[in-house]
Design brief:
elongated
């Protein structure tokens, strides 16, 4: 693989790493404004189903946007650790990438329920009699307990913690990455991990997860900008010819960060 293609791959991954958290942040922000998310998840089934039915339209567009962003996150989660990991830690990078892939898949399952499952349940709930409504409310509670709480709140958050912490630690092991980015990934991972502990109240989970998401958001955008080569800063003097020759003989080192 030549230097240009490696540099192009880093820029592509960097651009996706910038756009994905932006898309998720905007979509979740719109859901918070229009659908009372995530507080709606802690409300009785009947209230949630009525809100889903009444908020059809724009809110569904926001949920579709979040789901598509979660699909893009799957690519980012797998690609970023492979770019970050130094050669001596490729195996660790692969394991961290696998954890990120699991987290993204679980996030897709979590947010996808609001696109493909709940709108139909809400429509049947609105048309149903009292007995049917009770059955649908119980079904919603069961699905939410599995997809929203078990997979979304706990497992997706746990694997996201492993991914962010691991990728941040890899950044700290490579001097080409600013240490602040490494520590930001670790901080987001710790907050996600604490928020996934069983027994926390919904409010405590929401507060920890929100702060962790903000740090995760800034960390990914900063990492993506660095990979994409958008912040230029001062240009460093050219390296000696012999060093350039050595780097070209070891192309795996050229894909980490864009060259000046």
């Amino acid at each position: 693989m030549n230097t240009g293609s490696l540099r192009g791959s880093a820029r592509l991954i960097g651009g996706l790493t910038v756009l994905t958290p932006l898309a998720m942040g905007v979509s979740f922000g719109l859901l918070a404004l229009t659908f009372d998310y995530p507080s709606v998840m802690d409300q009785p089934a009947a209230e949630v189903l009525r809100k889903v039915h009444d908020a059809a339209g724009a809110v569904q567009v926001y949920w579709v946007a979040v789901t598509l962003a979660a699909c893009a996150l799957l690519a980012v989660s797998v690609a970023l650790p492979t770019v970050v990991a130094p050669e001596r830690e490729r195996g660790i990078g692969a394991m961290i990438a696998a954890a990120g892939g699991v987290a993204a898949l679980m996030t897709i399952m979590d947010v996808g329920q609001w696109v493909w499952l709940y709108p139909d349940m809400a429509a049947r709930w609105i048309r149903g009699d009292a007995a049917l409504r009770r059955v649908i409310e119980q079904d919603w509670s069961n699905y939410h307990q599995l997809l929203g709480v078990g997979i979304g709140r706990y497992l997706a958050t746990l694997f996201s913690a492993i991914w962010a912490f691991g990728a941040g630690a890899l950044m700290l092991s490579d001097p080409r990455w600013p240490r602040v980015l490494g520590w930001a990934g670790i901080a987001a991972g710790i907050l996600f991990l604490v928020s996934a502990l069983p027994g926390l109240s919904f409010d405590a989970w929401g507060a920890l997860n929100t702060v962790g998401f903000v740090i995760w958001f800034v960390w990914l955008i900063g990492s993506g900008l660095l990979l994409a080569g958008i912040p230029r800063g001062s240009r460093t003097p050219p390296e000696p010819v012999q060093q350039q020759t050595d780097l070209s003989a070891r192309p795996e080192h050229l894909g980490h960060l864009p060259l000046p």
